[in-house]
Amino acid sequence: MRRDIDRRPWSFGDISIRLLILVLASLVLMALQVTGRLEPIQSAVALLTSPAQVGATGATESVTDAVDFLFELRNLRQRNAELEQVNSNLLVENFELREVQRENELMRQLLSFAQTRPGLDLRGAQIVAQVIGQESNNFLGYITLDLGQSHGIEVGYPVVTDQGLVGRISEVSDTTSKVLLISDPSSAVNAILQSSRLNGVLRGNPGGDLLMDYIKQGETLSEGEVVLTSGLGGRFPKGIPIGQVVEIRQRDIDVFQQAVVRPTVDLSRLELVMVVTNFDPLEDVPELLVPLVPESVPAENATNPLDGEVPLDGSTLGTPATGETTPGETIPNESTPVEGAAGEIEGEQ
Amino acid sequence: MNRGALYFMMFPLLAAACLFQATAAGRIKIYGVKPDLVLLLIVIGALVYGSRPGVVWAFFGGLGLDLFSGGPMGSSSLALMAAAMVAGFGHRTLSRFNMLVPLVAIAAGTLVYAGAYLSILAVLQYLDVTDHRLPWLSTVQSVVVPALVYNTTLMVLLVPLLNRIPESQDL
Q1: From residue A29, how far is each of A134, A209, A224 by CA, in Å?
Q2: Looking at the whole model, is its pTM more than 0.80?
């Protein structure tokens, strides 16, 4: 193949200026977004793009279902050749009905979840949101819902399914909202182990696993234990299932134990979720949860800032018995605060 | 397909890739990562047409990605522009008809894109502007390396198609 060697004189200045302008434009966009001035434009764009997302998501599901259907059909052929034709006809006939039935079952499960938790304000279809988009890159863990500010969704609202915790609303436009998943590395949820009643902080990992950290040394926990939200920190209601311990990481030289947790919700295949709209999440409490333990303190002397002396109902959130501490205020502690320990653990995000 | 067709199809292709990335790409995850289709398009564009149009496509492709992302607006643009600059070295400097050039370009592009994106998030977190904490080591192990393999494999499949596009003048 002949290579075209005719070209215009290459000008470095040309591309430099172009690059400079585009970099500046990117930085200006970042600044506008951070200061909140991009919100109306983002809302308008979201309004325009959300139908396309809904359509693409629907098409994807149809294709996936069709592929599943083909595999299922192949298996049926292998199992019973005589019934092949009958089965395929029935499957084709029921293809759409099965989709409706599946959605119906999911809605029933959601309704059952709502009925068994009368404390949460789950108002029927208004707060059942459809997942219309996923995070576009591999580094972060977000999903997009088809409900926004106009539907009463606000930043901080917890998002759940009938199987457990999904995340929390992190960004809201008029008609859509973004959910920070519990599997995102920036996410942190205060959690408790159901049987051993040990507290810890559950963080997302880039690989998709959840890691429960800051579990006190010397305490016994077991694989298979159920992990629930503890309510500490005030970002999530207490008692929502998160997952199950699949691996325990305990080393004597570490201050705390860790546990690898498998989420109960399949976060990669979310279709319908529920937004808890009557829960008032606290925003500024991380100082209450910062450990006041230097890293050099031996494990046996370490105190867990999330430990069980604090009642586990979300109302106290680690505040002293007087309850006079306001969010953001640091609680005096008998331990000597050590610089550098702060930041190792932070409250829920 | 001639050079003009791809050039003018780039924006629609990028829009479709962004939409795909935010909806269906999750269904074709391997080892927990999805392919970076927008990055693939940008690298192909930069290989065929050079860095100059490449950075423009990268800017708008990045904006499209950021629309569907929880990350800061403009961060993907900056990261993709860096990747386009790197991939642009494969245009003219080396013959992209050599099988290795597109593969090295996408591998380098993936690394530069990931490095730039993670750096931007780290800087913004350091400035206390956003709260996206990404541990570098585990992110590289769990995300960047599998994505590199995935993107390179896809590029292997796309090379025969890429070789049918004539090399263009610098635009």
Answers
A1: 22, 32, 46
A2: no
Q: Does residue A187 contact residue A204 with C-beta atoms inside 8 Å?
A: yes
- With contact defined as beta carbons under 8 Å apart, do A178 and A185 qualify? no
Contact A15 B68 (CB under 8 A): no
Per-residue model confidence (pLDDT) at position A346: 41
Contacts of A45 in chain B (CB under 8 A): 67
Contact between residue B79 and residue A138 where contact means Cβ atoms under 8 Å apart: no
B59–chain A Cβ distance below 8 A for any pair:
yes
Q: Do A33 and B18 touch (CB under 8 A)?
A: no
Yes or no, beta carbons of B170 and A186 under 8 Å apart: no
Section A119-147 average pLDDT? 76
From A3, A185, A186, residue closest to B167, measured CB to CB: A3
CB proximity list for A27: less than 8 A, separation 6 or greater = B74
Q: Tokens for A110, please give them.
A: 């959601």
Q: Does B63 touch chain A (CB under 8 A)?
A: yes
In 3-state terms, what secondary structure has residue B137? helix
Token digits for B100? 């290795």
pLDDT digits (tens, 9 = 90+) for A289-328: 444 333 344 444 444 444 433 333 333 333 333 333 333 3
Looking at residue A224, its amino acid is G
Q: And the tokens for A216?
A: 């006190």
pLDDT, residue B6, reads: 77
For an interface test with A, which of B2, B34, B69 has the most A Cβ atoms less than 10 Å from its Cβ?
A: B69
Dig out the tokens for A309 from the structure.
């002396």
**pLDDT, tens digit (0-9, with 9 covering 90-100), for A253-286:** 888 899 999 998 888 888 889 898 887 777 644 4
Q: Which residue of A has its CA nearest to B77?
A: A26
Number of CB atoms found within 10 A of residue A198's CB: 25
The CA–CA distances, whole Å, from B13 to A170, B39, B45, B97, B156 equal 29, 12, 11, 23, 19
Question: How many residues in chain A?
Answer: 349
Rounded Cα distance, A244 and B105, in Å: 42
Of A30, A60, A268, the CB nearest to B73: A30
Nearest CA distance, B166 vs chain A (angstrom): 7
Cα separation of B55 and B50, whole Å?
9
Average pLDDT rounded to a whole number, residues B131-143: 87
The pLDDT, as a whole number, for residue A91 is 59
B82 band by pLDDT with thresholds 50, 70 and 90? very high
Contacts of A171 in chain B (CB under 8 A): 70
B143 touches chain A (CB under 8 A): yes
ipTM over 0.95: no
C-alpha triplet B106, A184, A239: angle, nearest 5°: 160
Cβ–Cβ of B23/A60 closer than 8 Å? yes
